[in-house]
Amino acid sequence: MEQDFHEIYDQDLQYKGTWTQALIQNAAFPILIPLFFIFPKPKQNLETNNTRFLSLRLFFLYLSLGVLVAAHSKLFALGKLVSNYGIFMLISATQLIFTAILTAIINRFKFTRWIIISILLTIVIYVLSIPDFGGQPHEGEEYGYNIQAWLAFSATIAFSLSLCLIQLGFEKLLVKTKRYGNKKVFRMVLEMQICVSFVASIICLVGLFASGEYKELKGDSKRFKKGEAYYVLSLVGLALSWQVWAVGLIGLVLYVSGLFGDIVHMCASPLVALFVVLAFDFMDDVFSWTRIGALLGTTLALGSYFYTLHKRNKKKMSELN
């Protein structure tokens, strides 16, 4: 399948819709609010009597993470829109390296040889699963590729930093202070996602109206081939999908680590490629040997990390006995 996203070089056209895409990634958080109240709240057993100070620290945590997530959403949408797709995906593959470095600094994560093997395998399979299209830069675009590369790098760093800060927030503010009792509970994940997405959505809304991009929404819906109703449904479906993805990712951060969440996130690429080919019967999209290798590598990458988790749990159990 050959596709060139840059047949017509129009800088103004390239930037349209990025605030909308960023908003879609965060705006569906209200669907999580009923779940937050449905899940039982464990009895608090706070280690500190200064609940006001704890609330203040949580406020600044959610505010900073909301700004970071909004920045990542905007930069991700902008980088994906204006960059050569192949280059953008190659730069995105470095995301796991940034996550590993930041989690070692911020979370004091201890690496084992099996985790390092898992990281290396994940980066390789992510690169192998990149589709063989993306086009070549035209003369008018070559100058802008440096900016586009920096946009992609900035998006990956923002994502990696957000994972590490979410893990730090769980460890230092929600788990260590026993705000939800003595156990890790799913309600922590919902609180984190609702609060962070609320801040990010406000920032994206301000950007949407300040940039004047909201004026284009009506025109975009009318140009949608299947009609305005399907346009709205597609936006709603995308927004809901982003929330499901985010809740799953944050859950992995809470119960395992930010690094593991990023590994699973990147290992999903070959699985998604296989699903697209099978579910939508894309006869012209060949599931090549490189993608088959990436699929096998996914099993090895996750298996290496799970082996480390098994060894750590076994060691903990032996210490308790």
TrEMBL record:
UniProt membrane topology term: Multi-pass membrane protein
GO molecular function: purine nucleobase transmembrane transporter activity; purine nucleoside transmembrane transporter activity
Keyword Isomerase: no
Compartments where located: Membrane
Main location: membrane
Superkingdom of the organism of origin: Eukaryota
One Pfam family it belongs to: PUNUT
GO CC annotations on file: membrane
Coiled-coil stretches noted in the UniProt entry, renumbered to this chain: none
Keywords: Membrane, Transmembrane, Transmembrane helix, Transport
Membrane spanning stretches: 22-39, 59-79, 85-106, 111-129, 149-168, 189-210, 230-256, 263-280, 286-307
PANTHER family noted in UniProt: OS09G0467300 PROTEIN-RELATED, PURINE PERMEASE 17-RELATED
Entry similarity comment: Belongs to the purine permeases (TC 2.A.7.14) family.
Protein name: Probable purine permease
